[in-house]
Amino acid sequence: DGGITQSPKYLFRKEGQNVTLSCEQNLNHDAMYWYRQDPGQGLRLIYYSQIVNDFQKGDIAEGYSVSREKKESFPLTVTSAQKNPTAFYLCASSIVKGSDSPLHFGNGTRLTVT
Amino acid sequence: GENVEQHPSTLSVQEGDSAVIKCTYSDSASNYFPWYKQELGKRPQLIIDIRSNVGEKKDQRIAVTLNKTAKHFSLHITETQPEDSAVYFCAANVGVGSGGGADGLTFGKGTHLIIQP
User: Fold this and answer.
1) Using an 8 Å Cβ cutoff, are B84 and B115 in contact?
2) Is A8 helix (H, G, I), strand (E, B) or coil?
3) Do A103 and B46 touch (CB under 8 A)?
4) Per-residue confidence of chain A (114 residues) as pLDDT tens digits?
5) Which residue among A58, A68, A110, B2 is least enclosed by CB atoms within 10 Å?
6) How far apart are CA A38 and CA A66, in angstroms?
7) CA-CA distance, B76 to A6, in Å (whole number)?
8) Are B11 and B103 in contact (CB under 8 A)?
């Protein structure tokens, strides 16, 4: 259910490797977001996109990159420059570009880097 | 930027009692305040939200109040049940009035609500 698909659910990588997390939505939402969740830290915004071919940095964008080539897709790349990449990553979307639209979340990807 | 503080970090109540979670925000321009519930291992889901043009909103056992002057808002759950056990997050929108549109939400750090049988 839900209309937002994140894959894979679990991901393991060696330190120094880049890794890309997938996020696809079929809700026809304009805006998409990536959040990082750590224990006791809540959800912190990494990147967001209001429209195709446009995206903006959030609060903790360092070490991450994104693209928005299609409305349905907003992949997140965790680069080797990210010092503490192990975390739970949540993708979300909202129907319009306004800042008072509810977020719909995917089921998340748990990334472990060793 | 926006800063959202949430208290308490853990709340344990007896089944049937009420639970209250409080949040404060820093940006007086924020005008949208949602609450999300996240069960263990699952995604956050919106349970209720309030906009700054109202002071209170209720949906069955859940209510949210907003005090714009004091910049705080609260979640109230009455007649708590075991299925209410979860982590609850408050949030406030950012970038309001900046022309940037959907700048996302700033979340509190969450409250782990435990319902004791």
Assistant:
1) yes
2) coil
3) yes
4) 559 999 999 999 999 999 999 999 999 999 999 999 998 888 999 999 988 999 999 889 999 999 999 999 999 999 998 999 999 999 999 987 666 788 999 999 999 999
5) A110
6) 20
7) 32
8) no
